Write a sequence for this structure.
């Protein structure tokens, strides 16, 4: 737990996220919610590599001058050492920028208290099964690209073995390197076997790939969000009883590990308790906009009720009295997650918000929280724009800083870039207004230029885009790859 008071500070939890799998970001949101409810920090928000808000926008969501960032990642690999510092514009563990102090903590997965969580998860998944007749398997992804991802699991296995916690044996296994999880029956000897995936979130690996490798099912291909896979324990396999757990990152006590990382950062860097009120900017700005009669944002209608409470619903549902009523701002997360057909909405500003609901909120703080769930960072960006403090990032700069599989994305031509923006960012796909140019001196042309014009009603709070999102970076990579393939010499036959 944090030792210093953090009532003056913001906590940003960074997750990987996904453009296809809603379960990827779910645990990060849940842990943020749990910490927010404890009231330890002035502000608690999430941001993601593959979802909204991204790592540039998230700073517009917090007013605090002191910001702690905790990566909700398993190991100190490529993401925590390269991608996150680059995207979050960090100079190291401590960054001073724009009058703010930003503390970059270690990722949750390497905290020693992960051991406690693993033991707890093992007992939960196999209740009443004696440890001395149980083999505990911790399974990771494993990859030649990042030795840290293996090291973190080896460390946990050693800690549990050396801690003499009573298991018949404890082994590490991997999906893509030896010792392979597929060989679990040869690697273990006890009659009962508990398997805990050392992942941050459940997804394809824990729902589909590992069950196939364990022999629990014959082939992949089932629905993505298949939590039922964890509800059929034990599995009788190869003469043993196998208990299969969800990813360790879904454990509720991961919220404590996030706080432990903040505590350890304070201790390591000698940060003392602080207190004192800081100026709030976004909430007063929201109050002022409502007073001015701005009563919508994106597809949402906002009603300020006579008793000081607020109601929000889909704009097309305004005035309807047969809506399903919710009272918790966090419900916004779930409403915003799927469209009317049940499909995942990775882009919150896509004009596909579900209808039929109303959210009644008691305070302006709750209204702000709910609107941040529907349209991450939109309020903060509008406020910063009004203060003339909102900086946008040219497309070439975003594409140029990509690494790994996206490193060639910036090789697309200007013409291709403009066509891509005109198509991908069109209002029927995204309601945001683009504020970034192609380069600092090169404005947009044709359809892309249209997207830089105000596209919201006069009474609406706008949705703004300060840098190309992950969908545009992926689209640029695809075009770059097609260019490369088209330029390959044709074979003689
Ligand atoms: S880059 Fe385009 S699609 Fe992505 S958020 Fe901005 S406007 Fe929307």
């Amino acid at each position: 737990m944090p030792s210093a008071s953090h009532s003056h500070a913001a906590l940003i939890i960074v997750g990987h996220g996904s453009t296809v799998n809603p379960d990827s970001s779910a645990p990060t949101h849940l842990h943020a919610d749990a910490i927010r409810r404890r009231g330890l920090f002035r502000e608690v928000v999430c941001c993601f590599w593959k979802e909204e808000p991204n790592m540039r926008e998230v700073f517009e969501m917090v007013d605090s001058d002191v910001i702690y960032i905790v990566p909700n990642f398993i190991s100190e690999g490529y993401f925590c050492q390269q991608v996150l510092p680059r995207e979050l514009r960090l100079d190291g563990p401590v960054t001073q920028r724009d009058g703010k102090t930003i503390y970059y903590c270690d990722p949750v997965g390497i905290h020693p208290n992960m051991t406690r969580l693993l033991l707890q998860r093992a007992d939960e998944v196999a209740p009443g099964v004696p440890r001395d007749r149980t083999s505990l398997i911790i399974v990771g992804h494993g990859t030649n690209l990042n030795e840290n991802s293996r090291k973190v699991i080896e460390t946990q296995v050693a800690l549990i073995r050396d801690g003499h916690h009573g298991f018949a044996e404890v082994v590490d296994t991997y999906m893509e390197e030896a010792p392979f999880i597929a060989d679990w029956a040869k690697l273990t000897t006890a009659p009962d076997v508990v398997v805990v995936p050392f992942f941050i979130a459940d997804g394809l690996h824990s729902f589909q790939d590992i069950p196939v490798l364990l022999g629990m099912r014959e082939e992949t291909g089932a629905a993505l969000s298949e939590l039922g896979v964890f509800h059929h324990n034990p599995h009788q396999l190869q003469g043993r009883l196998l208990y299969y757990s969800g990813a360790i990152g879904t454990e509720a006590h991961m919220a404590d590990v996030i706080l432990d990382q903040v505590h350890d950062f304070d201790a390591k860097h000698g940060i003392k308790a602080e207190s004192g009120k800081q100026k709030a900017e976004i909430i007063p700005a929201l109050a002022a906009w409502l007073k001015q009669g701005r009563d919508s944002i994106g597809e949402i209608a906002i009603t300020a009720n006579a008793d000081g409470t607020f109601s929000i619903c889909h704009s097309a549902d305004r005035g309807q009295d047969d809506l399903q009523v919710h009272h918790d701002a966090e419900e916004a997360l779930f409403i915003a997650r799927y469209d009317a057909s049940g499909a995942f909405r990775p882009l919150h500003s896509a004009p596909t918000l579900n209808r039929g609901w109303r959210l009644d909120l008691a305070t302006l703080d709750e209204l702000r929280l709910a609107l941040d769930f529907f349209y991450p960072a939109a309020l903060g960006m509008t406020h910063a724009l009004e203060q003339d403090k909102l900086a946008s990032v040219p497309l070439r700069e975003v594409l140029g800083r990509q690494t790994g599989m996206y490193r060639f994305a910036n090789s697309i031509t200007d013409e291709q870039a403009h066509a891509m923006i005109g198509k991908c960012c069109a209002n029927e796909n995204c309601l945001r207004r683009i504020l970034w140019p192609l380069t600092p001196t090169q404005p947009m042309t044709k359809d892309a230029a249209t997207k830089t014009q105000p596209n919201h009603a006069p009474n609406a709070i706008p949705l703004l885009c300060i840098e190309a999102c992950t969908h545009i970076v992926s689209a640029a990579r695809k075009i770059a790859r097609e260019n490369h393939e088209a330029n390959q010499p044709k074979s003689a036959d």
